[in-house]
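Retro notes (design track)

What went well: tokenization of the new backbones is finally stable.
What didn't: we kept losing track of which sequence belonged to which structure.
Fix going forward: every design gets posted as structure first, then sequence, in one message. First example under the new rule, 33 residues:
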């Protein structure tokens, strides 16, 4: 199983925070796990 781990930038412009997103390559690019 190929899984991509990337950071998704969320939050406000002056107060951003990053969430670790694990995306399975078999799902859509914006698929949620």
């Amino acid at each position: 199983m190929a899984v991509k781990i990337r950071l998704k930038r969320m939050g406000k412009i002056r107060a951003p925070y990053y969430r670790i997103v694990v995306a399975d390559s078999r799902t859509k690019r914006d698929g949620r796990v």
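Added context from the reviewer: Strands lie at 3-11, 16-24.
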